[in-house]
């Protein structure tokens, strides 16, 4: 993916000296962050996975580095530790003096794993048991907001849809087993508790299938779909194109069959999905802004070369089916600012603000908040000024600004083109 990813384009625009390695298909990038500048680091990750991540925050695995020689601290985490008032009083007290969120841009070309994130109780347990795989004790609710058409799997489909796939995809039913499949069909006329039990049984049967049998059934399905496509037949009723795509990326992987359990969403730019604890999901393709609690805990079970933990995933998941449209998370319009949209999920750790300012506006005032925040410029060119800054700060596409709590920022548009920005913060 390399320099063609949205992450690379954002980074190259804001920092012409930045280098993206074309021979490392998946990279994590730590940006230059203005409050002062923060250095970027590019590192290879999962050589079989194509994509890139731009990290903006103070997580120990990606603590942004400070370039400004006038500042003694070397990372954002260190600076916040020494400047606690920058968090805001409520944030400082609630989150023990830590920045509670991690802000990212993701560019996905190869599907990212079938996964879910633990709640706090489970995160603490997993971190204690296996810190090498679960690096912290925090939960990781997250939100993805599309920058380009963004495809992902999210939450369990309505049972009626899964039952149709069991009928149309015999290879899928073979792995589920006759008994579990029958239980799921019977649950259609039963209460939600029966549905949950049947869905748990079916998904667990699939994910715990013997590898050899999975490969055999997947090869049969791929051959059947390929033959039908070659004959000019449309196989979208069983997600044929997606199945072939995932099999090409992860041959013989059990995660290929997860498309028959999980809702398939394609977000339009500006649309979002919120992923609370225990919701199964996978990002398949596209670019998005992502915000989450400050954690790197992920329980995986397929479509990945990384560590997988099938028993934990099957045990922890929320087996609550819902239509795909229910997974969308619409923003609210600000009553104070006509250019501001607010994505405010039902967790205290983070909120994302989207600002779309027309190029005809010459100056835009960024709302002062009682929270530290990180501002990302996706489109447009401005100069930022604050009462505390010694000089104005030029920002363009890919520019990132750290804003301390209760600090007012004025942006002057230096080019009369529309401005698109996202801001992560904590609204307690």
3D structure, described in words:
The protein is built from eleven helices and 23 strands. Helix 9 (211-230) packs across helix 10 (240-249). Mean pLDDT is 89; it is low at 19-48. Strands 1, 3, 4, 6, 8, 9, 10, 11 and 12 form a nine-stranded mixed β-sheet that branches. A six-stranded antiparallel β-sheet has the order 14-15-16-23-18-21, with no helix packed on it. A four-stranded antiparallel β-sheet has the order 17-22-19-20, with no helix packed on it. The radius of gyration is 23 Å and the shape is elongated. The relative contact order is 0.17. It has 428 residues and is of the alpha+beta class. Keywords: Isomerase, Metal-binding, Zinc.
The geometry reads as elongated
On the 0-100 scale, what is the average pLDDT? 89
The Rg value, from CA coordinates, equals 23 Å
Strand content: 25-35%
- N-end to C-end Cα span: 38 Å
Characterize the main sheet. Answer: 9 strands, mixed
Number of strands: 23
Number of helices: 11
Structural class from helices and strands? alpha+beta
Helicity level:
25-40%
In the predicted model, the low-confidence regions spanning at least 5 consecutive residues are 19-48
What topology does this entry show?
Layout (H helix, E strand, L loop, with lengths): L5 H9 L11 E4 L8 E2 L2 E3 L6 E6 L8 E2 L9 H7 L6 H6 L6 E8 L5 E3 L3 H10 L12 E5 L3 E7 L2 H10 L1 H7 L1 H10 L4 H16 L3 H20 L9 H10 L12 E6 L4 E4 L5 E13 L5 E4 L7 H7 L15 E2 L6 E4 L7 E7 L5 E4 L6 E7 L2 E4 L7 E3 L4 E4 L5 E5 L5 E7 L3
Parallel strand pairs: 1-4
Antiparallel strand pairs: 1-3, 2-5, 4-6, 6-12, 7-13, 8-11, 8-12, 9-10, 9-12, 14-15, 15-16, 16-23, 17-22, 18-21, 18-23, 19-20, 19-22
Helix pairs in contact: 5-6, 6-9, 7-8, 8-11, 9-10
């Amino acid at each position: 993916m390399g320099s063609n990813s949205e992450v690379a384009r954002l980074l190259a625009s804001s920092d012409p000296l930045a280098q993206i390695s074309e021979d490392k298909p998946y990279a994590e990038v730590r940006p230059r962050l203005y409050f002062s500048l923060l250095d970027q680091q590019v590192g290879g990750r999962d050589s079989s996975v194509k994509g890139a991540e731009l990290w903006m925050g103070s997580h120990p695995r990606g603590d942004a580095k400070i370039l400004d020689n006038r500042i003694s601290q070397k990372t954002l985490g260190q600076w916040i530790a020494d400047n606690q008032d920058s968090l805001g009083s409520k944030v400082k007290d609630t989150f023990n003096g830590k920045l509670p969120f991690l802000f990212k841009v993701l560019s996905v070309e190869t599907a990212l794993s079938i996964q879910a994130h633990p709640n706090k109780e489970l995160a603490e347990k997993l971190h204690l048991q296996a810190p090498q795989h679960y690096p912290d004790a925090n939960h990781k609710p997250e939100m993805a907001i599309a920058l380009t058409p963004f495809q992902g799997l999210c939450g369990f489909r309505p049972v009626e849809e899964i039952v149709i796939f069991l009928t149309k995809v015999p290879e899928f039913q073979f792995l589920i087993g006759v008994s579990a499949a029958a239980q799921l069909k019977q649950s259609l006329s039963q209460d939600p508790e029966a549905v949950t039990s049947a869905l748990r049984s079916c998904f667990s049967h699939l994910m715990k299938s013997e590898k050899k049998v999975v490969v055999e059934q997947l090869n049969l399905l791929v051959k059947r779909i390929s033959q039908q496509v070659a004959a000019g037949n449309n196989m979208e009723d069983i997600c044929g194109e997606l199945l072939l795509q995932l099999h090409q990326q992860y041959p013989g992987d059990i995660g290929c069959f997860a498309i028959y359990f999980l809702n398939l969403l394609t977000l339009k730019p500006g649309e979002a999905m919120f992923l609370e604890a225990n919701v199964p999901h996978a990002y398949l393709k596209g670019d998005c802004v992502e915000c989450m609690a400050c954690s790197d805990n992920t329980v995986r079970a397929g479509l990945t070369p990384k560590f997988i933990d099938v028993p934990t995933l099957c045990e922890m998941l929320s087996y609550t089916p819902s239509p795909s449209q229910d997974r969308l998370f619409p923003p609210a319009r600000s009553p104070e600012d006509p250019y501001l949209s607010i994505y405010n999920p039902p967790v205290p750790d983070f909120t994302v603000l989207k600002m779309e300012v027309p190029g005809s506006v010459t100056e835009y005032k960024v709302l002062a908040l009682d929270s530290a925040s990180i501002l990302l410029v996706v489109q447009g060119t401005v100069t930022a000024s604050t009462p505390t800054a010694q000089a104005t700060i030029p920002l363009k596409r890919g520019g990132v600004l750290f804003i301390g709590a209760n600090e007012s920022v004025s942006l002057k548009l230096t080019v009369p083109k529309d401005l698109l920005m996202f801001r992560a913060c904590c609204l307690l």
